[in-house]
Amino acid sequence: MTDLRAATEPHRGQPEPFRWEGVAELAYKEHDSTFRGVTRRVLFGAGDGLGVEVRYFEVAPGGWSTLEHHEHPHQVIVLRGSGACLVQDRVIPLAQHDLVLVPGWAWHQFRATGDEPLGFQCVVPLDRDRPVLPSPDDLAALTADPGVAAFIRR
């Protein structure tokens, strides 16, 4: 008989804003220096049976995520702060409660532009490929647009 009990706790309180009981703050990426001031938390994952991972990222004021692309799409919900993101060739301003769809293979990067962290929830498939960084040719193509060139941080 299959055990249908939840693999994780059915409830995790929030003792302070954007911090959840039993949810550790993790390094954004291991052995990578292509970002500044980013942390992540895995809110739901493999043990939940849904086939997705729900993560919460915080980008410190003035910080940015890695410029990358990958095969899997992801969905982003801005929960706090303000900022901007690059999705392929568009720089998009971000405010609380905005939704962003990053299609597969779209170049993307997130930046915090306000005085508080840019916090966002990100939903990705559990079975996903690894991010790919831009080659010099990719970077040249991306930065041919002056608006994109001014936005990108490395």
Mean pLDDT reading? 92
Taken from the alpha-carbon principal axes, the silhouette is globular
CATH superfamily: Jelly Rolls
Kindly estimate the percentage of residues that lie in beta strands according to DSSP.
Answer: 35-45%
What is the class in the CATH system? Mainly Beta
Q: Provide the helix percentage.
A: under 10%
What oligomeric arrangement do these chains adopt? Answer: single chain
Number of separate domains = 1
| SSE succession | EEEEEEEEEHH
Based on CA atoms alone, the radius of gyration comes out at 16 Å
Structural class: mainly beta
- CATH fold assignment: Jelly Rolls
How are the strands ordered across the major sheet?
1-2-3-9-4-7
The number of distinct β-strands equals: 9
Q: What summary fits the major beta sheet?
A: 6 strands, antiparallel
What is the terminal separation in angstroms?
52 Å
Task: Report the total helices.
Answer: 2
Overview of the molecule:
The protein is mainly beta and 154 residues long. It has one domain (37-151): Jelly Rolls (Sandwich). The chain contains 2 helices and 9 strands; from the N terminus they run βββββββββαα. The protein has helices spanning 136-142, 146-151, and strands at 26-27, 36-44, 52-64, 74-80, 83-87, 90-94, 99-102, 108-112, 118-125. Strands 1-2-3-9-4-7 form a 6-stranded antiparallel sheet, with no helix packed on it. Strands 6-5-8 form a 3-stranded antiparallel sheet. The model is unreliable at 1-6 (pLDDT under 50).
